[in-house]
Amino acid sequence: MNRSQLSKSWQQVVVLAAIALLALAIRLHYVHTAVVDHPLRGDATQYFSYAWNVVHHRVFSIAPPESEAPTPDSFRDPGYPIFLAGIIALRGDTQAFYTTTLDIQAILSALTVALYTFLARRWLGFVAAVTVGLGLTFWPHSITLAGYLLSETLVGFFIAVGLWCLQLGLERRSRTNIVASGIAFAAAGLTNAVIVPAAPLFAGAMAWRDRANRARWLCLLLAATLPCAAWILRSSQLPPNLTSSSRVAMNFVQGSWPEYHSAWFAAISGDPAAKATLSLIDNDITRLHGDRLAGVAAILERMERAPMRYLAWYASKPVELWGWSIGIGQGDIYVYPTFASPLTGTGPLRSITDLLYFANPFLMLLALAGVAAILTTLGRREPALVFAILLGVYATCVFTVLQADARYAVPYRGIEWVAIAAAIVAMANWSKKHRPRRGRFIDPIDLRDGHHS
């Protein structure tokens, strides 16, 4: 790389670093401005209980903090409670714990933006990197979730770290980076079990196909598998009451009812019909816990009475996942009631949020086109990019079977913006290729840090 190219590369790095700093400033501004009404509610209460019991009783238990002898369970995954426990150990469990947690999550969210931005530069070029960086910087759900005691921000950070380390490991032929990638994906799986099979499956497939790098792929496979296997072994020794499989069963049943989100919201205000619907859903959950075969048979029998309705429901769930409104929560871009939010007040953040709201259906179509563009040119793509896209597809399939909600897509929004950028690059590529002009056409895929490969 000559001096001119080196100067251009550094200019690009400065621009992308500035975007990351902007993301950090916005998130810190948000968590210090927005006010969450009763932040310890719902899932947040359970996460805090686990963390409190880990610190004070050395037991991973969902039991309320006032319990004298909490019993261990595995209903929730351990990653986020352990993260909170570390903060409680350092800052106590008062207001300082809460503000410190939000500050750390704001930083992790901004680092996630930075990682995807620099990954996009390697995968798709500088313009794509700016697109990913700005899109993820201003994406409102990624901002608001940093302001709750919920696991999505941490999961998204671990995924981004895993992809970054994987990219570096393959570029530098470094087993250390590959192992770090596996550990990051294991941490993501221990924070949200949905991710557990993803890295081992991809690593196993690549070890079979890519013989030249088989040892590195096996390192990824082992590093991503062993920590999760240890947790699964620990959980298998506990009484079969509150387990992760019971939570999966609950989500599966709830996701099989098209009425669940609307009934959940209406029941808060005391709607008797909504409460009756939730009672039916609870009956299905109880039946499935008691007898898996009988429970599944009852759900299938319900679906057989209106097959087209349920077919349409499941077909619409990916849109529900990648859509805008958070169904199980306050709605719009908020999980819990939130006041004084700079995203819904006045000023530029409100204007950008409104713009993204209207653009979201178009962005979903662009992301779908980007996924198609990458998966139809697999041989020319970086393996880490392929894995990122496949991870987004995998998560979409899992949440379509279980519960689909815009909140659950937050850890994967960086992948969505990479797919959006890939679609833009593909369209620009097609346009240039079919526009008569002098000179040789240069495919953006072949650009690497300002010079041709």
TrEMBL record:
Source organism's superkingdom? Bacteria
InterPro entries from the UniProt entry: LipidA_mod_glycosyltrf_83 (IPR050297)
Q: Which residues form a coiled coil?
A: none
Keywords attached to this entry:
Cell membrane, Glycosyltransferase, Membrane, Transferase, Transmembrane, Transmembrane helix
Q: How does it sit in the membrane?
A: Multi-pass membrane protein
Localization, per the record, is:
Cell membrane
Q: Does the keyword Protein transport apply?
A: no
- List residues traversing the bilayer: 96-116, 123-139, 145-166, 178-203, 215-233, 311-335, 355-378, 385-404, 410-430
Q: What is this protein called?
A: 4-amino-4-deoxy-L-arabinose transferase-like glycosyltransferase
